[in-house]
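Pasting as-is:
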Amino acid sequence: MSNHKSALVKSGLLFFLSAFLLAAPGSSQTLRKISQAELKDKISGYWIGQCVGNYMGFPFEGTYLEDPIPVLIDRYYQFDDDTSLHINRNDLRGYCPVVTNWLGGAFSDDDTDIEFVTLHAVEKYGLDINYNEITEMWINHVNRNIWCANRAARDLMSKGLIPPETGSKANNVYWHAIDPQLVNEIWSMLYPGMIRRSVDRAEWSARITNDDWGTHPTLAYAVMYSAAIFEKDVNELVAQALRYIPHDSPFYEGIEDVIDWHAQNEDWRITRKLIFEKYYRFKRGDMEVPVSDVSSLSNGLFGIMAILYGDGDFEQTTGIAVSAGLDCDNQAATCAGLIGVIHGASVIPPRFTLGLWNPVWTQAFNDTYINFTRDGLPAYNRISDIVNRILQLAEEAIISTGGKKIFENGEVYYLINSDIEASNPGQLTE
């Protein structure tokens, strides 16, 4: 048999296998195909998108609470901007364009630098890393520039506790805070398209810092990031996320409300008002959500709102996420990263990445990521190297879960053993 004919036969068998698995009654998984180049572009979109959202939201972090920012944020603001706006003018957050120019690229913040530690941790210990191993990595590398649930968990580690005790209600006063939903998107890139595994590992990691419903927004975003490898419709992504949240969770109720309010109101500001009024001080029976500007509940729902109203558009989604207020740099980073996964890095407008100041770079953030917050890890990094390292681990995960790496016409493709939906919708966690 000729090599050409053999390749055709193999290709046909793979197509038949994929079609059979997709159509099999009761099947919960299917092999889905993506080129290595496209997957790499999506991983780049995730990392670069998070940086953009982080820096767009940084000047407004925590400055707008009861009401949203009166304008839709569509560019980078800084200390010397519109004096009618509440901007963090007295610290790093008001100087993002200056700092990126000075450093010659992107810089670390908690939207990316905890994931930077996770990347090193998984490279050292493997995809099945356990709580003792991740605790060691946190003790070695996560010591400063951390807040709320992350800070509390790290302090508990110094007292000899390990997860999930470091995130439990009994020990961590911030168990309900936003922290895990902004530092665990990486698991969905390590398990691209493998929704169930992405969620399992994201929940595992969320319990380093959080407990109970405080982990549920993390699950939702893990679903959307992983599903976005193959799904571009943001409405479908949100619907898929809902299937993985326990039905008695306030976040489940919140997502249902935001879906309804989005259908009823063209103006996202109306929905923002409804979210704030119900969920910032949420009570239901014996449940009373702690009132907090960094709540995983209200901030997480603002993110869902931005994703729905943004309708897959990078600028619109990121702008709404920032303008919604509260802990807006974090929700903007998560939302912008998601759109980057959906469409790839190429969807991110160059004006956000090729020089926040001057000179103009030829690659996004000058292909540079400066780590100055995580002790003992490299300070100077190429973004392309970070992406390649994540891709290498993702390839390992794809193959180890029954997927394949194949070659067609000189190109590399992956067949991913992808989840169709939750095996027990709405009841993933105990």
